[in-house]
Structure formats: C-alpha cells, structure tokens
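can u do me a favor
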C-alpha cells in the first residue's frame, strides 16, 4: 500500500509524525518558501515523471535567498530527496509535491529574518485536477490587487504572499466563479490567483511580464517554448489591459496545478465563443504528452521515477 510520507527533520517519516510547534515563526508571519511540483504517472512505463524538478528547486532557492533561509542542501540534494520520497511512498498515480523551507525557531516576538533557525520539509500527495481542465472556466476580475514588488516580492513563492491569492480566490468562488484574475496597482492584468495568464489575438500569444508583478511560472516558460518551437507562434510579453481580455480570441491560465486551463468567460462576458479555442487545444495536447514523459523532444524536462509497490519502506 502506498504510504503518505514526508521528509522532515532530515528523515523520511509518516506524514502524521511531521509536526511543528505552535510558536513556529513561519506559522505566525508566513516566513516560508514553498514550491508546487507535479509528478505525473505514466502507467505504460511504470514511472512517475516529475516535471521540471530542477527549475522548481532553482526558484525555491531564489525564494530562500529572499527570506535569508540557508539550508544545508544543494539543488542535487533536493532533487535526490524528492526522488527518494516518491520511491519510498510507492504512489502509482498523479502527485503534487510540496517542498517547504521555513523559519522554524519557536520565537514569535521577532520581526527579523536573521538569527532564526531554518528548516526544510517535503510532502507528496495524490492530486488530480485543480480546476476542471476538460471545459472552459468562468473567471472574474478580483477586487483585490496583486501585491507589488515593493511590498512583498511576488517573483518567489513566499507563503505569506499567498494571503493575497487566497482573498481573491475566496471572493471569486463565493461569487460563483472558478478563478480570480488579479490586476496590479496600475490596473493592468497581472495573473490568476495561482496561475499565469495568456491571451490569443489574431494567432499571437500575449502575456504579462515580470513588471506586472507575476510569478515567473515554469508552466508559462514551457508554453512559450512549445508555442514557439512546435507551433511556430509569436509571443509577446507586454502590459495587458483588462478590456483586451474581454475582446481576445482565446484566454487561458497556466500553472503546475492548473495545467493549461481554458477561460471561457470573464466578468460574465464570453471569450470568443466561450469554448476552448484551437490554439489552447493545440497547446494542451502537446503539454499533456510532455509532462507525462511521452514527448521524446522534451524528455530532459522529466525526471522518471520507477515505482514498484513492493519497494515501499518508511
Ligand atoms: N502565479 C502564481 C501566483 C502561482 O501561485 C503559480 C503556481 N505556482 C503560477 C503563477 C504558475 O507557476 P508555475 O507554472 O511555476 O506553477
């Protein structure tokens, strides 16, 4: 039987044993960095393909630098620990992999990043679709604005920053929408609560850039490469106005959890004919093969982990 394990305190333990104290700095102030990585089960090969593992840990370490979190692990160490966690867990299904680096001191009256202990934990859990990727979703423009780089840098995955996304997603879903689109302080399109955003206009892809306070998405980077190399499309990174989204031919969101999710409606206006457009479909087809290790051209993006149920050990 697969087991829910964590790498915690330098050991592989049942997730139920991976506990932190109530005085932990990160719990009070959001002083942690996390990643969201997918492991995609390929039954024909009997392997889980971890998608762009190294790039996720590169971004993770950038976040750690931002929060002055020093850990005794290299990128290779993180990758090896992740592979071993999956081997030991024995899951033969799609997984979500969550590394977390956090300020671990039991020290709450301290608003500094220095002179505090750091720790690392890693979890892997079964995970299907995050938002319905079969059809198109309905989005709204959030009344919450994306946090500026001058407030909390949104280019790295700082736990505390995600209150911004959570406020937006809560507002959107309570109002009956599937996802929120956040504008930045200048009223320009930034990104979804947990996804980057693209629009298609006359066969060209357009997407906001770093100066719009986006997270530099690994899925976004993947899409840009697939669109250019495999579909021969042009992509421009530029400021996008809300009204351009309404009038686009296609809009889609991209993220590790959300994959490529077609947006059929924004603020109760149909995008195109409201269905998944041809360019979004073409990208989805390519992308779903790539992340499952089925595309030889992009195998270097996948870390294949053979899973034998009998190898499960704690
Ligand atoms: N923006 C935000 C705010 C996110 O949380 C995510 C998910 N990590 C993304 C964009 C997409 O990033 P990625 O493709 O690397 O998952």
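np, heres the sequence
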């Amino acid at each position: 039987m697969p087991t829910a394990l964590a790498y915690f305190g330098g050991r592989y333990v049942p997730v139920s044993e991976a506990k932190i104290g109530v005085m932990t700095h990160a719990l009070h102030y959001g002083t942690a960095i996390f990643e969201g990585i997918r492991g995609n089960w390929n039954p024909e090969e009997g392997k889980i393909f971890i998608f762009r593992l190294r790039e996720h840990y590169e971004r993770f370490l950038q976040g750690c630098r931002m929060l002055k979190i020093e850990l005794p692990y290299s990128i290779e160490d993180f990758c090896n620990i992740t592979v071993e966690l999956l081997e030991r867990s024995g899951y033969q299904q799609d997984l979500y992999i969550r590394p977390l680096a956090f300020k671990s001191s039991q020290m709450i009256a301290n608003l500094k990043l220095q002179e505090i202990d750091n720790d690392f934990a890693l979890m892997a859990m079964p995970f299907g679709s995050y938002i319905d990727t079969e059809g198109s979703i309905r989005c709204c423009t959030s009344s919450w604005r994306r946090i500026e780089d001058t407030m909390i840098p949104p280019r790295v995955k700082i736990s505390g920053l995600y209150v911004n996304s959570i406020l937006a997603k809560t507002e959107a879903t309570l109002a009956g929408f599937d996802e929120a689109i956040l504008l930045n302080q200048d009223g320009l399109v930034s990104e979804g609560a947990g996804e980057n955003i693209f629009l298609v206009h006359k066969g060209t892809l357009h997407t906001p850039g770093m100066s719009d306070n986006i997270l530099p998405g690994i899925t976004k980077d993947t899409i840009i490469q697939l669109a250019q190399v495999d579909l021969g499309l042009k992509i421009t990174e530029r400021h996008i106005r809300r009204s351009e989204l309404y009038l686009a031919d296609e809009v889609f969101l991209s993220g590790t959890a959300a994959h490529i999710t077609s947006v059929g409606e924004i603020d109760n206006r149909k995008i195109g004919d409201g269905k998944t457009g041809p360019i979004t479909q073409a990208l989805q087809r390519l992308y779903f093969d790539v992340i499952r290790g089925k595309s030889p051209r992009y195998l270097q993006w996948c870390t294949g982990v053979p899973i034998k149920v009998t190898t499960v050990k704690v």
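Residues 36, 165, 191, 194-196, 215, 217-220, 254-256 surround 4'-deoxy-4'-aminopyridoxal-5'-phosphate (CB under 6 Å). hope that helps!!
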